[in-house]
Amino acid sequence: MLEVKLKALLDGAPAGVDAALDVVAGLDEALVTGFARLGPERAEALTAFAGALAGTPLGARLGEAVEKAVAGSVSDEHLAALAGGRSAVLGAVHDALLDGLDEALGRSRTAWQTTPDAAVTPSSAAAASTGSGGGAATSDSAEAATETLGDDAAGAASASVVGALAGCRAWLREVAITGWRGVDHELTTACDRVVEALLAVPGLRGLAVLVDGLAAELRALSPLATAERVPARRWADMWARGLLLAQAGAWHGDVAEVVSGRLLLLGVDVQEHGTAVRAQVYAVLEPAGGRPSRLVRTSVAAAKVETIVGSAVWRLLGAHPVLMGALADHRSVEITDMPLLAGGDLVWHDDRAMASTPADPFTTARVQLAEASAPPVTPLDRHPVQIAEPVLVEGYSSDGRLVRLGETALPVDLDRLPAHGPVTAGLVAASSACIGLMRWDGGRWLLQPLAVQATVKRKAVVAHTGDWAMGPTDPKVVKAEAKAGDAVAVLRERARRLLRR
Amino acid sequence: MDADEAAWERHSVLRVVPPVAPRKLAKVPFVELADGRLQGVVSSGSDIERVYVSSIAAGSHAMSCSTNNNRPCGGLHGTACKHLGSLVDEAVVQYGVDRVARYLRVEVPEDGRLIGALRGQVERAPAAVVFSRFLRHLTYLEVPDSTEPLAEMQWFPTSQAVR
């Protein structure tokens, strides 16, 4: 059954996706050369971008933004409109892709609840990104996406927040005007102060790690004027999300509800760049009181330096021993009064969690995954890169690169195989069951393994990406880690002696 | 690459920064390829409170080594001091010999020891900038953990081992 439906999913993108992405490419290319140097070709592509959104609530605003950009006098508001329009298009692509995936998986998803004062709350701001809809209600939300957002927050936010966001907007404006090709050492270095100001505000952490990651990439490819190629889609993604976040900060909103119950872990995806690491855990929540099971995520993150890599990153997350212990030991977790955001993110509090009975993630996936209801996606988060749906795939054959179910071949997301856990391409090749995340990038669906059941030398082997959460269990890795020493301890000692002078 | 797969420029998730290898940090706590230099901070062998700021310029291979208080290193005249030697060795562990050689614009010698191929003049470079970059680097370890949803991290997949 899954095989047949997956085949339909993999056979082609939903109608309009390619065309929508071509339109986005017009804006992405403009960011490569910069708004200060738009030639006729780029100007035409930008006009086409605005034209594609002409019928939407953002249409008029975008029309003006592109006109000004082409005339060489783009303002912050215009740039915000462009970022908003780009997010709207990618939001529509996201929705089309996720609808197709939900149908293939038979997954039921809770609808996004628009609150009555939707037009002025950031979280609803990109209801415009649901795309095809249009209409008066969406119009209000789209307005909010570009303007009201900023006004709203300025009233409530402290001076340090306002300053940090303004600094970030100014940097993103410079970058847009200069273009990726024109970014020099000075502009990259200027980002350091922006990041420091953002990191000082806990609520702006997402923007801080985004901009910091982007700056490191600019540095890695410098000198950009002569770089062989520039990751246009990727950097435009970051620029646009950064600019929207820099209007009024994060939009995940207030706590939607407080939940208690049993958490059955499915697996963990670790994401990182030079100075940040986060473990995002996927789980089924059995709410107390016998209500239906739900799919949830939770995330813990730490700052780091680039020399802390591989299995050593787990040490940075040691402040969350219940969660890490449950990952390593395959246990369920009893949670009490944990905040749950509207987009399905549990805000982790290790002191409100207690390790409970053993729970095999494969059993959870087999018994619970099909029934659990999925959370809605926060409107401004709708972007193909955010699609990460937990799935169980069984009874396939694999060479480590592709997972074959009958005539259907699903590529394995090799770029997301971890250095911090025992799941390798070799094990995937020897596996017959996999808990993974369905992802979409570069025009195709991919399977990111979180756990595999394999047969190696006639022995059953099970590996999960979180198996080393309490420290590596593979003697070779333990030895390598011991050889490198405890990077955190060494740097803390250096910091103690040199920093507080 | 697959026939169906979009061009590199049209991917949202790409590994732009090459991976680095873990290494012992005690002797050389900080190394970077930045500002047109291989530069870093080397712990003094004799005084636990002292560090040296050492750098080698890309292209010219101009060498500099001084304490963080800007006193010139006594071991650097004409040929590289032991701090510069350690800096290059550790950079090679962290980034791989090819990446370091490419950055410095030097051929990798047959014995693989880059330091022997560098014939730059001694040219004092300011230690303050590098030292403050090192201190900034250290401040990351003081940033508190976050349990925010951080959807932004979806653009940054897990690191992979250096090949």
Give an overview of the whole structure.
The complex is a heterodimer of chains A (501) and B (163). By secondary structure, chain A is α+β, with helices and mostly antiparallel strands. Helix content of chain A is 43%, strand content 21%. Chain A folds into 3 domains: 2-248, no CATH class; 255-368, OB fold (Dihydrolipoamide Acetyltransferase, E2P), CATH 2.40.50; 381-464, no CATH class. Chain A is built from 15 helices and 13 strands. The termini of chain A are far apart. Mean pLDDT of chain A is 89; it is low at 116-155. With 163 residues, chain B is an alpha+beta fold. Chain B is globular. Chain B has a 4-stranded antiparallel β-sheet, sandwiched between helices. Chain B contains 3 helices and 4 strands. The model of chain B has no long low-confidence stretch (mean pLDDT 90). Chain B has one domain. Helices cover 21% and strands 15% of the residues of chain B. In chain B, 44% of the residues are buried. At the A-B interface, α2, α8, α9, α10 and β1 of A face α3 of B.
Care to give the gist of this entry?
Chain A has 501 residues and is of the alpha+beta class. Chain A contains 15 helices and 13 strands.
Question: Which key terms come to mind for this protein?
Answer:
heterodimer; A: 501 residues; alpha+beta; OB fold (Dihydrolipoamide Acetyltransferase, E2P); 3 domains; 13 strands; 21% strand; B: 163 residues
